[in-house]
Structures are given as structure tokens and as C-alpha cells.
Amino acid sequence: MTQVQITKLPGNITVITENIPYVRSFSLGFWFATGTRDETPEMNGISHFIEHMLFKGTEHYTSKKISDIVESSGGYLNAFTTKENISVYGRGLTENLGRTFQVMADMVQFPRFKESDIRKEAGVVLDEIRDLEDNPEELIFDKFEELIYGQHSLSHPILGSEATVSAFTAEAVRGYYQKNFLESELLISVSGNVHHDQICDLAVKYLNRSGFQPKKKLELFKPIQAKVQNIEKNTNQIYCILGAPSYGFDSEKRIVLNLLSYLLGDGTSSRLFQAVREKMGIAYQISTFMNTYYDTSCFGVFFSTGAKNLERAKEKIYKEFEKVVNEPLPAKELKRIKEYMKGTILLGLENITNRQIGQATSMLYFNRVIPIDETVERIALITEAELLEVAREILNPEKLFSLTITPARVKTLAA
To answer: Where along the chain do its domains lie?
Structure first.
């Protein structure tokens, strides 16, 4: 049996631990409730940039020393930025937990932010931006969120732009870091063969922070009218997303839409995979996705195909949407997608970093760690009527946005 414990510490620090006694390792995450949606247009990309800079050395360790300490102990460090959160996390063997915690605490409290390092790292991030521009399969997801979120800050790309990143200075980075990292809430999430009291003791020993900033009040997203956009790139295939803004973490309907996503385009038995790839043979990849934020999510169908098959593929997708809305869902199929969704979730929990991320996400959005049995039970209780209600709201053709990335020589119909 695993055990989850939560403690609030001075300095606006929350510690969550899940003890898994049968493993020999840990996953440790430091979480900050700030991300791209908190940035101004002029500072777009600075959250992700600071995430990079945390690895560039501290007042006590060089960048190389940080890597040497953790990797020579059989572990590793990594980080990621989302539109609402930043996480710095480490994996390692249980006997090396204290050393890893000390190094990570130093990284998030005493980064150097040297001007010379900022200039070098700006070059690295510019390469990252250019790599994304050369990869239409990834670029289209950024561009789709720009399309559906309009003037809202959720439309901003996580990486920023070449113009904003090139303009970052040490003074600007330090100021943003002070307000959004040092003075904001810190969530420490740990899963593995760990003891809660040990993590709390390490936090008290190595973390000295004010954390007096109250939680930011989010500017909630207001839906805009559906749009169609085409971007020309130097590609061979056409890449397309059909989708819309949908329910966020604050909506009970979110999990129902997640199940609908499994029905439509998650897995090789899904309706769209079977219809568009297996039966028609006009797309190598087709799937649904759902990027979820506090008050909204980005739901859509992604596929790629040749120019001559674009309209056929879209027509078939719309017909599959109509079938979901207008035809009864067989009980056998409803049971299948519930089992598949449950299995996907439970299999993911075999990875302790997934467990660490999951409990942190739950705490950030729900202020509690939702037991996995509660989630599984909710999935089991979803009815056909609930799925139909969500499908009618989300799959309405008048509310669907369309984005294509096409070869420069190909002209597509705006449909």
C-alpha cells in the first residue's frame, strides 16, 4: 500500500509525499504555479527561459557541478514549463535523496543569471524556436492554440518569439524570477521510497524563502467565434487540426470529454483511426488530443494527409462527429472505451515520475490529491447521456476551428 501525506510549511511551502516502499528510487519535483499565461506579450517566453537558466549555475555550484553531483549518484535532473506551471524534477536512488534535494533547492533559490550566460542561453532557445518552426507536427499545436485563444495570454507560445527572447536582460530575468518564483508558493511533490518527515526536514533545512505573494487572479478565457486558418510551409504533407476550446480543470465535464476523446481518436480501435486510416487509407496518423488548463482546454483532432485527400478526410471526420451525436452508443463500445481509459491511467502509474506529476497537478488544481480509485469510479459512472451532452456541445460544426499547414504550392479551400 502507498501512503500520501501533505504538510504546509512556513514560506508558503507545501510538501506532498507518496511512500512506495517496494521501489528503490524517488521522483522529486519542485513546482511553481506560474507559466506562459501569466506573461505580458513583451515578456512572452520568460517563464520557459528561467526554467533553462536554473540549470546554468548557482552561487554555490557551476552548471557542470550540478550535473556531476546528480549523475554520479545514478540520477538525473530535468524540467518543463507549461502555460500555467513550471516543474524542476529529479530522479535518483533513495540513498541519494538528500544530496539531490540540496542541489535542487540551491538551483531554485540562488541562480546566478549572469548576463553572459543569458546571452548564450538565448541562442539555445532561439535554436529551439527554429527547430519547432521546422517541425510542422509540433508547430501546428502551438498555432492552433494561438488561433482558438485569440488575444488571451493562453494563445502565447511557451517558447516565446525570437524578438522577445533576444530582448531578455539579466535585470528583467531577475525581476521576473523574484516575483514569480521566490515570492510565490512552492509545491514539493515526491513519490517513491521516501519518508514524509525526511522531506519536511530537508525543506526546512535547505529552503529559506518568503513566499508572501498571494495566488494570482487568472484572467479567465472567454470563447471567441470559430475561425479557419491556413499556414504555408515547406512541407510534403498537409497537417490539420479540427477542434475547439472546451472544459477546464474547473469543470466536471472535463472527464466526460476525455472519455469522448478515447471514443473518437485514442488508440487503434478508435472510430477515427478505423474510419480514416484503416478503411479509407488516406492518413498515416490521426488522433484526438486535449490540453487542459484551469478554466478551459484545447480539444481537437490532429491528422496529416496528402493534398488530394484533405477534403475527403475532413468530410469523413465530420460524418463521424454526426454519428456520435445522432446515433446510440452501443453498450459494448462504451464499456470498451471506459476500460481502455482506465487501463491507460493505471498503467501510467507504474512510472513514479508520472505519480509525482499527477499528485502535484491534483494539488495545484483541486487543493487535494484525488485518490486514483475515485477517478476510476467516476469513469465507470459516466453514462451515454453525459457523453451525448458533451458531444453536442463540443462537436458542433459551427463552433469548430480549422487550421492547416500546407506545402507552399498547395491552395486549400477555407472550409
So the answer is: 3-206, 228-407
